[in-house]
Amino acid sequence: MNDRSKKIELRLGTRASLLAQQQANMVKKRVEELNAEITVTLVHIKTTGDKLDFPLLKVGGKGLFVKEIEEALTRKEIDLAVHSAKDLPAIIPEGLILMAFPEREDPRDALVSQGGKRFEEVPQGGKIGTGSLRRKAQLLNLRPDLEIVPLRGNLDTRLKKLMAMNLDGVILAAAGLRRMNWEGQVSEFFDPETMVPAIGQGALAVEAREGDERVRRAVASLDHPPTRVSVLAERAFLRRLEGGCQVPIGGLARIHVEKLALTGLVAGVDGRRVVKGKVEGPLEKNTELGVQLAEDLLGRGAEEILREVYQKG
């Protein structure tokens, strides 16, 4: 009997895109390094979100990128899954749990432009591609002159569309570009206070069945407490806003000297109305801070903005 046959196999579910596979392989490698008795096998699952070529808001939002994977977990066809945290809906299905948050990558948005132009150098009326209502709203708030072109597809597809659609630029998550070693194509990284990132952007989440101690032990060392505290604060903010779809909501929590600072944003799709706020407090109050910030924004006009977005969607 060889060594491999003695090992415990864990089946890790992931989307089949280049970036998803890269992220899943990062988790696979780390789990195997930390657990000599375990071998991880990747299981590629095509989600509804991967098959669509029109805005997610019209068909139920970003949970479409994880639904089939979570169903496979529930049916015990896989043992764990790795997601981009920003793809996760605000509420996790009963019986599943987010067991680990590896250390977060760069949470910022990035501009990839023709000729390496910075955002302020994009010509008047320039065409910028994005499939995100959050990015669209903030771009138009900063530059109402721009034409925002809807963009779908995986990271590599969207990069190709820059030239194929003759766009002036595309807005992408810095984390994905860095994980694929494509950051050399970035023309400019946006300050997260200027372009507030998506909830969980830059972070990965390892999901498994609640009570599965074998998986919990295998992934425990992957968990990065500062990332967990920050992402759970952002997700509490999103959950209170009932942001189940791909709506113009942004949020980023950062830790400074044992305190959590959470910035949040809700914007109208046309960028004319933006409600933004910030709270700070102790790390152990992370989820309470998320709810507090959401309540603040709802009281300052966010509720009306979100109602309009859902009605139009």
3D structure, described in words:
This protein is an alpha/beta fold and 313 residues long. It has 3 domains: 1-102 and 203-223, Periplasmic binding protein-like II (D-Maltodextrin-Binding Protein, domain 2); 109-189, Periplasmic binding protein-like II (D-Maltodextrin-Binding Protein, domain 2); 224-313, Porphobilinogen deaminase, C-terminal domain (Double Stranded RNA Binding Domain, 2-Layer Sandwich), CATH 3.30.160. The protein contains 10 helices and 13 strands. It has helices at 3-6, 18-34, 48-51, 67-74, 133-142, 155-164, 174-179, 213-219, 225-240, 286-312; strands at residues 8-14, 38-44, 80-84, 96-100, 109-113, 127-130, 147-150, 169-173, 188-189, 204-209, 249-256, 259-267, 274-282. It has a 5-stranded mixed beta sheet, with helices on both faces. A 5-stranded mixed beta sheet has the order 7-6-8-5-9, sandwiched between helices. Helix 9 crosses helix 10 (286-312). The longest helix is centred in the C-terminal third of the chain and has 27 residues, at 286-312.
